[in-house]
Amino acid sequence: xxxxxxxxxxxxxxxxxxxxxxxxxxxxxxxxxxxxxxxxxxxxxxxxxxxxxxxxxxxxxxxxxxxxxxxxxxxxxxxxxxxxxxxxxxxxxxxxxxxxxxxxxxxxxxxxxxxxxxxxxxxxxxxxxxxxxxxxxxxxxxxxxxxxxxxxxxxxxxxxxxxxxxxxxxxxxxxxxxxxxxxxxxxxxxxxxxxxxxxxxxxxxxxxxxxxxxxxxxxxxxxxxxxxxxxxxxxxxxxxxxxxxxxxxxxxxxxxxxxxxxxxxxxxxxxxxxxxxxxxxxxxxxxxxxxxxxxxxxxxxxxxxxxxxxxxxxxxxxxxxxxxxxxxxxxxxxxxxxxxxxxxxxxxxxxxxxxxxxxxxxxxxxxxxxxxxxxxxxxxxxxxxxxxxxxxxxxxxxxxxxxxxxxxxxxxxxxxxxxxxxxxxxxxxxxxxxxxxxxxxxxxxxxxxxxxxxxxxxxxxxxxxxxxxxxxxxxxxxxxxxxxxxxxxxxxxxxxxxxxxx
Length: 502
Description:
Blueprint: H1 3-15, E1 19-20, E2 34-40, E3 48-54, E4 61-64, H2 71-90, E5 96-97, E6 104-105, E7 111-113, H3 116-129, H4 143-158, E8 166-168, H5 169-176, E9 177-178, H6 189-196, H7 204-211, H8 226-246, H9 249-282, H10 290-309, H11 321-345, H12 347-355, E10 360-368, E11 372-374, E12 380-382, E13 385-390, E14 401-403, E15 412-421, E16 424-433, E17 452-457
Parallel strand pairs: 2-7, 7-8
Antiparallel strand pairs: 1-9, 2-3, 3-4, 5-6, 10-13, 10-17, 11-12, 13-16, 14-15, 14-17, 15-16
Region (Disordered): 459-502
Protein backbone atom coordinates (compact mmCIF):
# COMPACT_ATOMS: atom_id res chain seq x y z
CA UNK A 1 0.00 0.00 0.00
CA UNK A 2 1.40 3.41 -0.96
CA UNK A 3 1.73 6.37 1.40
CA UNK A 4 -1.28 8.20 -0.07
CA UNK A 5 -3.47 5.09 0.02
CA UNK A 6 -2.59 4.53 3.66
CA UNK A 7 -3.27 8.21 4.38
CA UNK A 8 -6.71 7.97 2.77
CA UNK A 9 -7.60 4.99 4.99
CA UNK A 10 -6.36 6.83 8.08
CA UNK A 11 -8.36 9.92 7.15
CA UNK A 12 -11.48 7.78 6.67
CA UNK A 13 -10.91 6.23 10.09
CA UNK A 14 -10.52 9.61 11.76
CA UNK A 15 -13.55 11.21 10.09
CA UNK A 16 -15.65 7.99 10.06
CA UNK A 17 -16.51 8.67 6.43
CA UNK A 18 -15.28 7.13 3.18
CA UNK A 19 -12.66 9.19 1.32
CA UNK A 20 -12.50 9.33 -2.51
CA UNK A 21 -9.30 7.74 -3.86
CA UNK A 22 -9.82 8.57 -7.52
CA UNK A 23 -11.19 11.48 -9.50
CA UNK A 24 -12.95 9.23 -12.02
CA UNK A 25 -14.64 5.86 -12.27
CA UNK A 26 -12.27 3.61 -14.20
CA UNK A 27 -14.78 0.90 -15.04
CA UNK A 28 -17.43 1.05 -17.72
CA UNK A 29 -20.94 0.93 -16.27
CA UNK A 30 -23.56 -0.34 -18.67
CA UNK A 31 -26.87 1.41 -19.07
CA UNK A 32 -28.48 -2.02 -18.73
CA UNK A 33 -26.37 -4.28 -16.49
CA UNK A 34 -27.60 -7.68 -15.38
CA UNK A 35 -27.39 -8.06 -11.61
CA UNK A 36 -27.05 -11.55 -10.15
CA UNK A 37 -27.10 -12.14 -6.40
CA UNK A 38 -26.18 -15.83 -5.93
CA UNK A 39 -26.82 -17.62 -2.68
CA UNK A 40 -25.49 -20.97 -1.46
CA UNK A 41 -25.90 -22.84 1.80
CA UNK A 42 -23.15 -22.16 4.33
CA UNK A 43 -20.58 -24.94 3.98
CA UNK A 44 -22.12 -26.15 0.69
CA UNK A 45 -20.24 -24.14 -1.97
CA UNK A 46 -21.22 -26.54 -4.75
CA UNK A 47 -24.91 -26.52 -3.87
CA UNK A 48 -26.64 -23.35 -5.15
CA UNK A 49 -29.58 -22.37 -2.99
CA UNK A 50 -31.02 -19.39 -4.83
CA UNK A 51 -30.31 -16.43 -7.07
CA UNK A 52 -31.99 -13.13 -7.71
CA UNK A 53 -31.42 -11.86 -11.23
CA UNK A 54 -32.61 -8.95 -13.33
CA UNK A 55 -31.60 -5.90 -15.35
CA UNK A 56 -33.65 -3.40 -13.35
CA UNK A 57 -34.22 -2.91 -9.64
CA UNK A 58 -37.97 -3.49 -9.87
CA UNK A 59 -38.00 -6.59 -12.10
CA UNK A 60 -35.75 -8.99 -10.22
CA UNK A 61 -36.57 -12.69 -10.57
CA UNK A 62 -36.04 -14.94 -7.55
CA UNK A 63 -35.03 -18.53 -8.34
CA UNK A 64 -34.94 -21.05 -5.47
CA UNK A 65 -33.64 -24.61 -5.15
CA UNK A 66 -35.91 -26.22 -2.58
CA UNK A 67 -33.44 -29.07 -1.95
CA UNK A 68 -29.90 -27.96 -2.92
CA UNK A 69 -28.51 -31.49 -2.53
CA UNK A 70 -30.90 -32.86 -5.16
CA UNK A 71 -29.13 -33.08 -8.54
CA UNK A 72 -32.28 -32.71 -10.67
CA UNK A 73 -33.36 -29.60 -8.80
CA UNK A 74 -29.89 -28.05 -9.08
CA UNK A 75 -29.86 -28.42 -12.85
CA UNK A 76 -33.46 -27.24 -13.16
CA UNK A 77 -32.33 -24.12 -11.30
CA UNK A 78 -29.30 -23.80 -13.62
CA UNK A 79 -31.58 -24.09 -16.65
CA UNK A 80 -33.94 -21.37 -15.37
CA UNK A 81 -31.04 -19.03 -14.55
CA UNK A 82 -29.32 -19.92 -17.81
CA UNK A 83 -32.35 -18.93 -19.91
CA UNK A 84 -32.45 -15.50 -18.28
CA UNK A 85 -28.71 -14.93 -18.65
CA UNK A 86 -28.55 -16.24 -22.23
CA UNK A 87 -31.51 -14.06 -23.26
CA UNK A 88 -29.61 -11.11 -21.85
CA UNK A 89 -26.38 -12.08 -23.63
CA UNK A 90 -28.20 -12.71 -26.92
CA UNK A 91 -29.74 -9.24 -26.77
CA UNK A 92 -26.20 -7.87 -27.34
CA UNK A 93 -25.65 -10.09 -30.39
CA UNK A 94 -27.80 -7.97 -32.67
CA UNK A 95 -25.96 -4.78 -33.70
CA UNK A 96 -22.69 -5.62 -35.46
CA UNK A 97 -20.56 -3.25 -37.50
CA UNK A 98 -17.47 -3.52 -39.68
CA UNK A 99 -16.38 -6.19 -42.09
CA UNK A 100 -13.96 -9.06 -42.02
CA UNK A 101 -11.60 -9.25 -39.04
CA UNK A 102 -12.72 -5.83 -37.80
CA UNK A 103 -16.36 -6.83 -37.56
CA UNK A 104 -17.59 -6.75 -33.99
CA UNK A 105 -20.62 -6.13 -31.82
CA UNK A 106 -21.05 -2.51 -30.75
CA UNK A 107 -21.93 -3.38 -27.16
CA UNK A 108 -21.21 -6.15 -24.70
CA UNK A 109 -23.09 -7.60 -21.72
CA UNK A 110 -22.18 -6.64 -18.19
CA UNK A 111 -22.97 -8.83 -15.18
CA UNK A 112 -22.64 -7.37 -11.69
CA UNK A 113 -22.47 -9.42 -8.49
CA UNK A 114 -22.26 -8.15 -4.89
CA UNK A 115 -18.67 -9.17 -4.11
CA UNK A 116 -15.75 -11.39 -5.13
CA UNK A 117 -17.54 -14.36 -3.59
CA UNK A 118 -20.27 -13.88 -6.18
CA UNK A 119 -17.72 -14.26 -8.97
CA UNK A 120 -16.48 -17.47 -7.34
CA UNK A 121 -20.07 -18.76 -7.09
CA UNK A 122 -20.59 -18.16 -10.83
CA UNK A 123 -17.27 -19.87 -11.56
CA UNK A 124 -18.43 -22.94 -9.60
CA UNK A 125 -21.76 -22.90 -11.42
CA UNK A 126 -20.05 -22.63 -14.81
CA UNK A 127 -17.75 -25.55 -14.00
CA UNK A 128 -20.77 -27.59 -12.85
CA UNK A 129 -22.67 -26.93 -16.09
CA UNK A 130 -20.36 -26.69 -19.08
CA UNK A 131 -19.48 -30.39 -19.49
CA UNK A 132 -23.01 -31.78 -19.00
CA UNK A 133 -24.56 -33.93 -21.72
CA UNK A 134 -27.88 -32.97 -23.24
CA UNK A 135 -28.80 -36.54 -24.22
CA UNK A 136 -28.55 -39.98 -22.72
CA UNK A 137 -28.51 -40.77 -18.99
CA UNK A 138 -28.64 -37.77 -16.68
CA UNK A 139 -29.33 -35.42 -19.60
CA UNK A 140 -29.78 -31.73 -18.85
CA UNK A 141 -31.63 -29.05 -20.87
CA UNK A 142 -29.71 -27.71 -23.87
CA UNK A 143 -29.24 -24.31 -22.27
CA UNK A 144 -27.24 -25.69 -19.32
CA UNK A 145 -23.88 -26.44 -21.02
CA UNK A 146 -24.14 -23.30 -23.15
CA UNK A 147 -24.79 -21.26 -20.02
CA UNK A 148 -21.83 -22.94 -18.29
CA UNK A 149 -19.45 -22.10 -21.13
CA UNK A 150 -20.52 -18.46 -21.22
CA UNK A 151 -20.20 -18.17 -17.45
CA UNK A 152 -16.67 -19.60 -17.67
CA UNK A 153 -15.79 -17.10 -20.41
CA UNK A 154 -17.06 -14.22 -18.27
CA UNK A 155 -15.22 -15.45 -15.17
CA UNK A 156 -11.98 -15.84 -17.13
CA UNK A 157 -12.46 -12.37 -18.58
CA UNK A 158 -13.04 -10.95 -15.08
CA UNK A 159 -9.48 -11.94 -14.12
CA UNK A 160 -8.10 -9.36 -16.55
CA UNK A 161 -7.51 -5.94 -14.99
CA UNK A 162 -9.64 -3.18 -16.46
CA UNK A 163 -12.37 -5.31 -18.00
CA UNK A 164 -16.05 -4.64 -17.30
CA UNK A 165 -18.00 -7.71 -18.43
CA UNK A 166 -18.22 -9.34 -14.97
CA UNK A 167 -17.56 -7.20 -11.91
CA UNK A 168 -18.10 -7.42 -8.15
CA UNK A 169 -19.70 -4.20 -6.95
CA UNK A 170 -17.46 -4.11 -3.87
CA UNK A 171 -14.38 -3.92 -6.13
CA UNK A 172 -15.83 -0.96 -8.04
CA UNK A 173 -16.62 0.84 -4.79
CA UNK A 174 -13.24 0.24 -3.13
CA UNK A 175 -11.47 1.31 -6.32
CA UNK A 176 -12.98 4.77 -5.82
CA UNK A 177 -13.46 5.08 -2.04
CA UNK A 178 -11.16 4.30 0.90
CA UNK A 179 -12.73 3.20 4.19
CA UNK A 180 -11.40 2.81 7.71
CA UNK A 181 -11.79 -0.96 7.70
CA UNK A 182 -9.68 -3.82 6.38
CA UNK A 183 -9.67 -5.16 2.82
CA UNK A 184 -11.44 -8.30 4.03
CA UNK A 185 -14.18 -6.26 5.70
CA UNK A 186 -14.60 -4.28 2.47
CA UNK A 187 -15.89 -7.49 0.87
CA UNK A 188 -19.04 -7.11 2.99
CA UNK A 189 -21.23 -4.92 0.79
CA UNK A 190 -23.43 -3.78 3.68
CA UNK A 191 -20.42 -2.75 5.76
CA UNK A 192 -18.84 -0.98 2.78
CA UNK A 193 -22.02 0.93 2.00
CA UNK A 194 -22.25 1.94 5.67
CA UNK A 195 -19.00 3.87 5.22
CA UNK A 196 -19.90 5.39 1.85
CA UNK A 197 -23.62 6.09 2.16
CA UNK A 198 -25.16 5.15 5.52
CA UNK A 199 -28.97 5.04 5.65
CA UNK A 200 -30.63 8.40 6.43
CA UNK A 201 -30.65 9.15 10.14
CA UNK A 202 -27.94 6.63 11.00
CA UNK A 203 -24.31 7.30 11.78
CA UNK A 204 -21.57 5.20 10.22
CA UNK A 205 -21.10 3.38 13.54
CA UNK A 206 -24.80 2.48 13.73
CA UNK A 207 -24.90 1.44 10.07
CA UNK A 208 -21.83 -0.75 10.57
CA UNK A 209 -23.37 -2.40 13.63
CA UNK A 210 -26.48 -3.21 11.58
CA UNK A 211 -24.32 -4.52 8.72
CA UNK A 212 -22.62 -6.98 11.07
CA UNK A 213 -25.94 -8.23 12.49
CA UNK A 214 -27.25 -11.05 10.22
CA UNK A 215 -30.77 -10.60 11.58
CA UNK A 216 -30.84 -6.92 10.58
CA UNK A 217 -28.75 -7.19 7.42
CA UNK A 218 -28.33 -10.73 6.03
CA UNK A 219 -24.96 -11.57 4.44
CA UNK A 220 -24.47 -10.24 0.92
CA UNK A 221 -23.77 -13.74 -0.38
CA UNK A 222 -22.74 -16.06 -1.67
CA UNK A 223 -23.26 -18.00 1.58
CA UNK A 224 -26.08 -17.71 4.05
CA UNK A 225 -25.54 -17.17 7.75
CA UNK A 226 -24.96 -20.46 9.67
CA UNK A 227 -27.40 -19.21 12.32
CA UNK A 228 -30.09 -18.74 9.66
CA UNK A 229 -29.36 -22.18 8.24
CA UNK A 230 -29.71 -23.92 11.59
CA UNK A 231 -32.62 -21.89 12.93
CA UNK A 232 -34.80 -21.41 9.81
CA UNK A 233 -33.52 -22.95 6.59
CA UNK A 234 -32.79 -26.53 7.66
CA UNK A 235 -36.24 -27.07 9.31
CA UNK A 236 -37.95 -25.56 6.23
CA UNK A 237 -36.05 -27.90 3.89
CA UNK A 238 -36.94 -30.88 6.08
CA UNK A 239 -40.62 -29.90 5.89
CA UNK A 240 -40.32 -29.69 2.10
CA UNK A 241 -38.67 -33.13 1.95
CA UNK A 242 -41.39 -34.62 4.12
CA UNK A 243 -44.17 -33.14 1.98
CA UNK A 244 -42.38 -34.33 -1.19
CA UNK A 245 -42.04 -37.85 0.21
CA UNK A 246 -45.70 -38.00 1.27
CA UNK A 247 -46.82 -36.62 -2.10
CA UNK A 248 -49.20 -34.13 -0.44
CA UNK A 249 -49.64 -31.30 -2.98
CA UNK A 250 -51.05 -28.83 -0.44
CA UNK A 251 -48.24 -29.42 2.06
CA UNK A 252 -45.69 -29.27 -0.78
CA UNK A 253 -47.00 -25.92 -2.03
CA UNK A 254 -47.00 -24.54 1.53
CA UNK A 255 -43.42 -25.74 2.09
CA UNK A 256 -42.25 -24.18 -1.21
CA UNK A 257 -43.91 -20.88 -0.33
CA UNK A 258 -42.31 -20.90 3.11
CA UNK A 259 -38.87 -21.51 1.57
CA UNK A 260 -39.28 -18.71 -0.99
CA UNK A 261 -40.33 -16.25 1.72
CA UNK A 262 -37.40 -17.22 3.94
CA UNK A 263 -34.86 -16.88 1.12
CA UNK A 264 -36.44 -13.69 -0.20
CA UNK A 265 -35.91 -12.12 3.21
CA UNK A 266 -32.22 -13.05 3.00
CA UNK A 267 -31.50 -12.01 -0.58
CA UNK A 268 -33.66 -8.92 -1.21
CA UNK A 269 -31.71 -6.55 1.11
CA UNK A 270 -28.55 -7.31 -0.87
CA UNK A 271 -30.44 -6.88 -4.15
CA UNK A 272 -31.57 -3.40 -3.12
CA UNK A 273 -28.08 -2.53 -1.86
CA UNK A 274 -26.45 -3.51 -5.16
CA UNK A 275 -28.73 -1.16 -7.07
CA UNK A 276 -28.05 1.60 -4.55
CA UNK A 277 -24.33 1.08 -5.15
CA UNK A 278 -24.88 1.25 -8.91
CA UNK A 279 -26.60 4.62 -8.50
CA UNK A 280 -23.65 5.87 -6.44
CA UNK A 281 -21.19 4.71 -9.08
CA UNK A 282 -23.15 6.40 -11.86
CA UNK A 283 -22.63 9.72 -10.05
CA UNK A 284 -18.85 9.36 -10.51
CA UNK A 285 -17.67 10.57 -13.96
CA UNK A 286 -16.16 7.92 -16.21
CA UNK A 287 -12.44 8.17 -16.98
CA UNK A 288 -11.56 9.07 -20.60
CA UNK A 289 -9.69 5.86 -21.40
CA UNK A 290 -12.44 3.59 -20.06
CA UNK A 291 -14.22 3.64 -23.42
CA UNK A 292 -11.16 2.25 -25.21
CA UNK A 293 -10.88 -0.61 -22.71
CA UNK A 294 -14.56 -1.39 -23.19
CA UNK A 295 -13.89 -1.70 -26.92
CA UNK A 296 -11.57 -4.54 -25.95
CA UNK A 297 -14.46 -6.15 -24.06
CA UNK A 298 -16.65 -5.86 -27.18
CA UNK A 299 -13.87 -7.43 -29.26
CA UNK A 300 -13.45 -10.35 -26.85
CA UNK A 301 -17.25 -10.80 -26.66
CA UNK A 302 -17.46 -10.91 -30.45
CA UNK A 303 -14.65 -13.45 -30.76
CA UNK A 304 -16.12 -15.79 -28.19
CA UNK A 305 -19.58 -15.40 -29.68
CA UNK A 306 -18.23 -16.40 -33.10
CA UNK A 307 -16.36 -19.29 -31.47
CA UNK A 308 -19.56 -20.58 -29.91
CA UNK A 309 -21.46 -20.12 -33.18
CA UNK A 310 -18.91 -22.43 -34.79
CA UNK A 311 -19.63 -25.10 -32.13
CA UNK A 312 -16.41 -24.46 -30.23
CA UNK A 313 -15.49 -26.84 -27.44
CA UNK A 314 -15.94 -26.00 -23.74
CA UNK A 315 -12.98 -24.61 -21.81
CA UNK A 316 -10.53 -27.01 -20.21
CA UNK A 317 -10.92 -28.05 -16.61
CA UNK A 318 -7.45 -26.65 -16.07
CA UNK A 319 -4.86 -25.01 -18.30
CA UNK A 320 -1.92 -26.98 -19.60
CA UNK A 321 1.58 -25.63 -18.98
CA UNK A 322 1.67 -23.45 -22.10
CA UNK A 323 -1.88 -22.21 -21.58
CA UNK A 324 -1.08 -21.27 -17.98
CA UNK A 325 2.05 -19.38 -19.06
CA UNK A 326 0.10 -17.58 -21.77
CA UNK A 327 -2.62 -16.66 -19.27
CA UNK A 328 -0.09 -15.30 -16.78
CA UNK A 329 1.65 -13.16 -19.40
CA UNK A 330 -1.66 -11.88 -20.70
CA UNK A 331 -2.85 -10.93 -17.21
CA UNK A 332 0.43 -9.20 -16.34
CA UNK A 333 0.28 -7.16 -19.54
CA UNK A 334 -3.34 -6.18 -18.90
CA UNK A 335 -2.52 -5.10 -15.34
CA UNK A 336 0.35 -2.88 -16.51
CA UNK A 337 -1.88 -1.30 -19.16
CA UNK A 338 -4.71 -0.68 -16.69
CA UNK A 339 -2.49 0.89 -14.03
CA UNK A 340 -0.92 3.14 -16.66
CA UNK A 341 -4.33 4.18 -18.01
CA UNK A 342 -5.60 5.01 -14.53
CA UNK A 343 -2.58 7.18 -13.72
CA UNK A 344 -2.72 8.87 -17.13
CA UNK A 345 -6.39 9.80 -16.70
CA UNK A 346 -6.55 10.49 -12.99
CA UNK A 347 -4.40 12.95 -11.05
CA UNK A 348 -5.29 11.22 -7.76
CA UNK A 349 -3.96 7.90 -9.03
CA UNK A 350 -0.92 9.63 -10.52
CA UNK A 351 -0.18 11.22 -7.13
CA UNK A 352 -0.48 7.79 -5.54
CA UNK A 353 2.10 6.35 -7.94
CA UNK A 354 4.35 9.38 -7.42
CA UNK A 355 4.36 8.75 -3.68
CA UNK A 356 5.55 5.19 -4.37
CA UNK A 357 8.33 6.33 -6.71
CA UNK A 358 6.60 4.82 -9.77
CA UNK A 359 6.07 8.22 -11.44
CA UNK A 360 7.33 11.76 -10.94
CA UNK A 361 6.36 15.37 -11.53
CA UNK A 362 8.45 18.49 -11.41
CA UNK A 363 9.67 21.61 -13.16
CA UNK A 364 11.82 21.73 -16.27
CA UNK A 365 15.12 23.38 -15.26
CA UNK A 366 17.18 22.61 -18.38
CA UNK A 367 16.12 22.14 -22.00
CA UNK A 368 17.83 21.42 -25.31
CA UNK A 369 14.87 21.56 -27.75
CA UNK A 370 17.03 21.68 -30.87
CA UNK A 371 19.05 18.53 -30.24
CA UNK A 372 19.31 16.29 -33.35
CA UNK A 373 20.92 12.85 -33.69
CA UNK A 374 21.87 10.69 -36.68
CA UNK A 375 20.38 7.19 -36.78
CA UNK A 376 22.04 4.02 -38.05
CA UNK A 377 20.40 4.68 -41.41
CA UNK A 378 22.01 8.15 -41.61
CA UNK A 379 18.74 9.91 -40.92
CA UNK A 380 18.78 13.03 -38.82
CA UNK A 381 15.94 13.04 -36.33
CA UNK A 382 15.06 15.42 -33.47
CA UNK A 383 15.87 14.09 -30.00
CA UNK A 384 15.36 16.99 -27.57
CA UNK A 385 16.43 16.56 -23.96
CA UNK A 386 15.04 18.19 -20.85
CA UNK A 387 15.97 17.95 -17.18
CA UNK A 388 13.17 17.86 -14.62
CA UNK A 389 13.76 18.75 -10.99
CA UNK A 390 11.38 16.86 -8.72
CA UNK A 391 10.82 16.42 -4.99
CA UNK A 392 9.23 13.01 -5.58
CA UNK A 393 11.09 9.80 -4.73
CA UNK A 394 12.14 8.38 -8.12
CA UNK A 395 12.65 4.63 -8.33
CA UNK A 396 12.85 4.42 -12.12
CA UNK A 397 16.02 3.32 -13.89
CA UNK A 398 17.71 4.77 -16.95
CA UNK A 399 16.23 3.68 -20.31
CA UNK A 400 12.73 3.48 -18.80
CA UNK A 401 10.22 4.52 -21.46
CA UNK A 402 7.82 7.26 -20.38
CA UNK A 403 4.51 8.84 -21.29
CA UNK A 404 3.10 12.13 -19.99
CA UNK A 405 -0.45 13.26 -19.23
CA UNK A 406 0.86 16.84 -19.30
CA UNK A 407 1.63 16.85 -23.03
CA UNK A 408 -0.30 16.01 -26.23
CA UNK A 409 -1.28 12.40 -26.91
CA UNK A 410 1.50 10.38 -28.49
CA UNK A 411 4.30 12.04 -26.52
CA UNK A 412 7.06 9.52 -25.79
CA UNK A 413 10.25 9.92 -23.78
CA UNK A 414 13.02 7.90 -22.17
CA UNK A 415 15.01 8.41 -18.99
CA UNK A 416 18.67 9.25 -19.64
CA UNK A 417 19.81 9.69 -16.05
CA UNK A 418 18.52 10.06 -12.48
CA UNK A 419 20.74 12.10 -10.14
CA UNK A 420 20.19 13.16 -6.54
CA UNK A 421 20.57 16.90 -5.92
CA UNK A 422 20.29 17.65 -2.22
CA UNK A 423 16.69 17.10 -1.20
CA UNK A 424 15.53 16.87 -4.81
CA UNK A 425 16.18 14.66 -7.85
CA UNK A 426 17.18 15.72 -11.36
CA UNK A 427 15.76 13.46 -14.05
CA UNK A 428 17.05 13.96 -17.60
CA UNK A 429 14.73 12.62 -20.28
CA UNK A 430 15.03 12.37 -24.04
CA UNK A 431 11.94 13.01 -26.16
CA UNK A 432 11.54 10.15 -28.64
CA UNK A 433 8.06 10.54 -30.13
CA UNK A 434 4.97 12.65 -30.57
CA UNK A 435 6.79 15.66 -32.12
CA UNK A 436 5.37 15.46 -35.63
CA UNK A 437 7.04 14.31 -38.84
CA UNK A 438 9.31 17.28 -39.55
CA UNK A 439 12.84 17.77 -38.27
CA UNK A 440 11.63 20.64 -36.13
CA UNK A 441 9.30 19.55 -33.28
CA UNK A 442 5.81 20.99 -33.43
CA UNK A 443 4.91 23.73 -31.00
CA UNK A 444 3.89 22.38 -27.59
CA UNK A 445 5.33 18.87 -28.10
CA UNK A 446 8.58 19.55 -26.21
CA UNK A 447 8.55 20.77 -22.57
CA UNK A 448 9.81 24.32 -22.06
CA UNK A 449 11.89 25.86 -19.29
CA UNK A 450 9.81 26.44 -16.17
CA UNK A 451 7.00 24.16 -17.35
CA UNK A 452 5.43 21.82 -14.79
CA UNK A 453 5.34 18.29 -16.18
CA UNK A 454 4.57 14.74 -15.02
CA UNK A 455 5.87 11.42 -16.34
CA UNK A 456 5.01 7.79 -15.72
CA UNK A 457 6.29 4.51 -17.20
CA UNK A 458 4.94 3.50 -20.58
CA UNK A 459 3.72 -0.12 -20.53
CA UNK A 460 4.46 0.01 -24.24
CA UNK A 461 3.74 -2.34 -27.06
CA UNK A 462 4.73 -5.87 -26.14
CA UNK A 463 4.97 -8.70 -28.69
CA UNK A 464 3.42 -12.02 -27.75
CA UNK A 465 5.94 -14.25 -25.94
CA UNK A 466 7.09 -17.32 -27.84
CA UNK A 467 6.10 -20.57 -26.16
CA UNK A 468 7.15 -24.10 -27.17
CA UNK A 469 4.80 -26.38 -29.04
CA UNK A 470 2.72 -28.77 -26.99
CA UNK A 471 4.78 -31.77 -28.11
CA UNK A 472 7.96 -29.97 -27.00
CA UNK A 473 6.78 -29.33 -23.47
CA UNK A 474 9.15 -30.92 -20.90
CA UNK A 475 7.75 -34.07 -19.33
CA UNK A 476 7.82 -32.33 -15.92
CA UNK A 477 5.16 -29.89 -17.18
CA UNK A 478 3.08 -32.18 -19.38
CA UNK A 479 -0.12 -33.92 -18.45
CA UNK A 480 -2.73 -36.08 -20.06
CA UNK A 481 -4.59 -34.09 -22.69
CA UNK A 482 -8.08 -32.98 -21.78
CA UNK A 483 -10.92 -32.14 -24.11
CA UNK A 484 -11.75 -28.48 -24.45
CA UNK A 485 -9.92 -25.30 -25.20
CA UNK A 486 -7.63 -23.14 -23.11
CA UNK A 487 -9.69 -20.89 -20.88
CA UNK A 488 -8.05 -17.59 -21.79
CA UNK A 489 -8.72 -16.94 -25.46
CA UNK A 490 -8.89 -18.97 -28.68
CA UNK A 491 -5.38 -19.93 -29.86
CA UNK A 492 -5.47 -17.99 -33.14
CA UNK A 493 -6.46 -14.79 -31.34
CA UNK A 494 -3.77 -14.90 -28.65
CA UNK A 495 -1.23 -12.68 -30.41
CA UNK A 496 -3.73 -9.88 -30.99
CA UNK A 497 -4.29 -9.50 -27.26
CA UNK A 498 -0.75 -8.26 -26.67
CA UNK A 499 0.02 -5.29 -28.87
CA UNK A 500 -1.75 -2.13 -29.89
CA UNK A 501 -3.62 -2.54 -33.15
CA UNK A 502 -2.29 0.75 -34.43
